[in-house]
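P.,

For your records, the input lines for the assembly:
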Amino acid sequence: MKTASALLSLLAPLCLTAQHGTAPDSFVWQTEQFADVRILRYQVPGWDQLSLQQKQLAYYLNMAGLAGRDILWDQNHRHNLQVRRALERILVGYQGQRSGADWEHFMTYAKQVFFSNGIHHHYGNDKHEPGFSRAYFEGLLKASGATLSGEVLTTMFDPAVDAKKVSLEAGKDLVKASAVNFYGPGVTQADVEAFYAEREKQDDPARPLSHGLNSRLVRGADGRLQEQVYKVGGLYGAALQESVKWLEKAAAVAENAQQRKAIDLLIQYYRTGDLRTWDEYNIAWVQDTASSVDHILGFVEVYNDPLGKRGSYESIVEVNDPEATRNMLAIQRSAQWFEDNSPLLPEHRKKNVVGITYRFINTAGEAGDAAPSTPIGVNLPNANWIRAAHGSKSVSLGNISEAYEKSAGSSSLEVFCHDQEEIDRAKAYGALAGKLHTALHEVVGHASGQLEPGVGETDQTLKSYASTLEEGRADLVALYYLMDPKLVELGVMPSLEVGKAEYDSYIRNGLLVQLRRIKPGKDIEEAHMRNRMWVSAWVVEKGMKDGVVARVVRDGAIYYDIRDYEKLRSLFGDLLREVQRIKSQGDYAAGKALVETYGVKVDPAVHAEVLKRAEKIRTAPYAGFIQPRMVPVTDAAGALIDVKLEFPDDFVQQMLYYGEKHSFLPDVN
Ligand code: ZN
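Structure tokens returned:
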């Protein structure tokens, strides 16, 4: 618990218990745990080896990324910025009693809101429940000189209002059922589909635009639908203007002409909002494979839109990890071999796998949808035609994985593994298996396969099932090859025991462990969770019939014991072939049936048992990160001579600092 004065003092010069450079063994990986969340920190190996120019570049890109932080808050819900600013006012200014049950619950709620960039859970999508009364909160507001409208307060406190950030519940109007701020009042799913069907007709079929990626769709005063485009001078213009200011500095210190071209195109896109420029930027970005400092920036992933069109704002600054990348080159070089030897129908195999780039990177700064919760692997760009014609870039965030491993206490292995052999295998090979799964998923998985002629982009053909089917497909490619002697031959793993460890872990997680993240009575909604479930449930159902997998019940608890790894591998292959067929042919009905049958509903008895068992584990199921702080060092003349990294250790203080220094959008509504 911080006192008010401590909170105030940090808002002046933020110099916490900073450690410079690569921190020693005493580095604190986990700083705290609240609700279902752990707060971790990461190091940035390789930072000190960067040149001054590369450090400058990373710093400017990071500032450009942070400039847009508010955008994600507003995208997630129309009241999020107001709620956050009220929380900030209370945290900084409240002079009353900062202890007791109500205050503790208030602190937990505030941290949850900071963690998820809004009032809904970042992963489960349910609205956070304040553990304190509306009257208590109104007292805090008043004493802190803050106000919120009755509508905002009702949104916070009435569980029925905007209960779900993103709803994928079949049969509902997904736009109306989702509280996310991508669509204006009164806009329906049918409206959106009709609006974009019209736009898609005007597309060049060889280069379809990512319609809706950078706008909000509203009904204008004249009753007609119109896009409010995210651009300088448009929606979110103030934040994008600030971002452009830093991107211009970044372009000036770019590592090479190709990178400068990409950054210049991003600036142009932020200025015009033109989606053709976004495509040109992505092509330039994917062709920059030489830079040591790279970035992911803009409106990128569409998971937060129930219709899979609108991109959430995010920023990741990456620093190359050359050593780990070298190890993965072997997989990259064999991409065509993997494609040729895959279980896909011959007509769905890609004849010429183009431009797969894979690197292990370390992130040096994240913002927007990539923070505090972060991905561990990313493959971009998302437009299929660019991927087919120009390739894609895949990265694994090595230092994030490292932080997860270093911070993992007594694991869930004892609680969920079937036997000692499984535990031992997980301890010996689990970390490597996880890294290889990520690498294969990103490099070989997302790059594999081809659509049949005339079949449109999957977000149009497979709609709300496109994301989970694509993630499941990439997982299946990884799983299929993790038991292939080819990986041993390539020298990336010592034996097939690594593959067995991954099979154990995948089934254990898909059918049991991940249910920890779901509240009783709820379905699985999130795309990745769904795919881990439907992949696991499908192969286990088939495998149980002929002794490939056994479902063992001991003292009322369920375990899965894999008895034939080779046969399980061929079941993964069978499912991969079918999922690729669904994607290649745009078979919506089959995709929907697969996901709804195997990946959505949770058996309440199994769920209850898993939650009971999980009480023995004290590690929270989610984790996110306090970001390092890049501190520019200038000489007497004001010239930048170095950028040092500091590693703050207080989550709330960092959130308050961001709220003060990196907030550029006015309150709306
Ligand atoms: Zn993926």
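Two observations worth noting. Residues 322-353+411-625 form one domain. Residues 420-445 form the longest helix (26 residues).

Regards
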